[in-house]
Request: fold
Amino acid sequence: MKLTILCDNNTMIDQYYLGEPALSFYIEEGDQRLLFDTGYSDVFLRNAASLQIDLTQPMDIVLSHGHNDHTRGLQWLKEKHLLANKRIIAHPDTFNQKIMASLDIGSPLSVQELKASSSLILSKTPIKLNASITYLGEIPQHFSFEPRMPIGMTWHDHKLVPDLLLDDSALVYQSSKGIFIITGCSHSGICNIIETAKQLSNESRILGVIGGFHLFDVDERLAQTIDYLKSNQIDLLAPCHCVSFHAKAEISKSMRLIEVGSGACLEII
Reply:
């Protein structure tokens, strides 16, 4: 599997690609082409062009959740008529309106608009995208130190309720050597996500984890997260997007991290 970062908060030294506080990955595995999240603007498209990655071809688009730093790029795909040959996979709550301090922080496109311009699959249960890559669906709670914390409000069953981000999900790639986990923001809890991937794959060997971990403070939650990550003996840990400098520094005291950013590429065997 080859994973290229089309958009991240971070940019790499002497790598002249654009960054923004958002996330988008391009994944190649065998004949499968997959876009994981679409960033906040057209940055992912501009970086893809610079990297000579063709996003006009048929592929799956998997959305980690509905926040606009992961879904707003959909409007550029729609404007450029690039959705017709795409299959979009997401949790059913992904396109519910999301509000924070009176601002709309959700997807720019509705379910109706996406159904009219693409093939849309909404699922709470895991979906096998090919022989090696699986969309995890709704993430169950495994650890008490990772409770779901509401971010803003969302419309659910015709009511405005605290948004617990039940739509937050991830991908797992499985090889003969173990599993590799790909996250968006980990609102569900990075350890909850990893444990779900392990159980779904029936595999305890973790080759690596890349993506947003949603960790900001050096606190008890981070300490327990580090203990869990260490106990799993993860070979490659690449936190990005929504992980603070202080959290990365604390994790790096116990585990080896790699720096990633827009334009970076990982190959997992």
Remarks:
- The CA atoms of residues 91 and 167 lie 5 Å apart.
